Amino acid sequence: MKRAVLCVLLLAAACPWAVAADEYPVKVYPCPRLSAPPVIDGSPDDACWAAAPLVSGFTRYNKPVLLDVQASFRVGYDDRCLYFAVLCDEPLAAKLTPTFAGRDSSGCFRGETIEIFLDPRHDHTDYYQFAVNLAGSFYDSHKADAYWNSTARLGTKLGAKGWTLELAIPWRDVGLPAPRPGAVVGFNVCRDRYAGGAREWSNWSQTMANFHDAPRFGHLVLSPTDKMLASLAPELRRGDRRGPIVLFTREGEAGRAYLAMAREALRGLVAQLAELEAEAAREGSPAARDELARRLADARQLVAPFRKRIAQAGAKLDAAEWTRMSVAMTRLGARLGELVWDARLAALLSGI
């Protein structure tokens, strides 16, 4: 099946600077409003799903390595529900024997299972877990509270080349009475694969110790415009996320959004420089003032190439260039935040 993975996940082999422990890609899925609710029967072939990008790129849950056997998914919403369609490739599909384990049983996790996590307010603490196995067994919890139950609806289907899942989660079940365009919802899609006798756990947005890693979930942004996406960069980076922001969207849309985010990031750097220049003017120590002025001159030289490239970009940036710029500009912003104290310390040490 062809997958529209339009913004490539850049891993260690291509970009060794992008996979430090706190620099995993910040994944963003612009989530469309569906024209009609899909039929939740496990066969994601309703026409409404065409509006939602089909994305893939699952990695080992504790190591950013792409798996040979992949899953992919679509996400959409309406006023009542958030909808997921998940497709699991399985070369050993003919050998699968679905085993039903009921509701909220640990047996749900002992077979082929998809786990979906939602952080509806994007606060990195108050999240929900939904797990569905191939047989239609269902587990849901509010964080670790398995006594919490939703009214989510689900359907699964086993085919010759894999299995599929559809899940409808009512907004009211997760405390959001009405979705609004531009809202950010933390989420992740994870897979437990046991086919062939080997346990293989994978996730779409890279986690560290386990799947319950809300600060490293990906992000749904509901019906966003390019302007919305550009303004959301600080929200997407909550929890000190320093990796590149990667959009998974339909062709033609990502490049415009990347350029809007680059312009917004440049405005942030320019504003930081202006604040630091004002701070330098108020600096009481002549040695510290001179050191800060020198460092500010160096920083302006580092900002200049971003200003020039953005001015030359035309209508859009491609994913690879935005990724490089995103990482570099984020790191430069962090360095600017420490500039005053670094300059004061350097001045103090030089006078000893």
H-E string: EEEEEEEEEEEEEHHEHHHH
- Low-confidence runs of at least 5 consecutive residues: 1-21
End-to-end Cα distance: 67 Å
Largest pleated sheet: 10 strands, mixed
CATH fold topology of the largest domain: Immunoglobulin-like
Polypeptide structure, described:
- It contains six helices and 14 strands.
- The protein has two domains: 16-250, Immunoglobulin-like; 254-350, no CATH class.
- The strands form two sheets. Strands 1, 2, 3, 6, 7, 8, 11, 12, 13 and 14 form a ten-stranded mixed sheet that branches.
- The protein has helices at 226-231, 233-236, 253-282, 286-312, 319-337, 339-350, and strands at 26-31, 59-60, 63-66, 71-77, 81-89, 113-119, 128-133, 138-142, 153-158, 162-170, 184-193, 200-203, 218-222, 245-247.
- Helix 4 packs antiparallel against helix 5 (319-337).
- Residues 1-21 have low confidence and may be disordered.
- The termini are far apart.
- It has 352 residues and is of the alpha+beta class.
Short description:
The protein has 352 residues and is of the alpha+beta class. The protein contains six helices and 14 strands. The strands form two sheets. Strands 1, 2, 3, 6, 7, 8, 11, 12, 13 and 14 form a ten-stranded mixed sheet that branches. It has a four-stranded antiparallel sheet with strand order 4-5-10-9, with no helix packed on it.
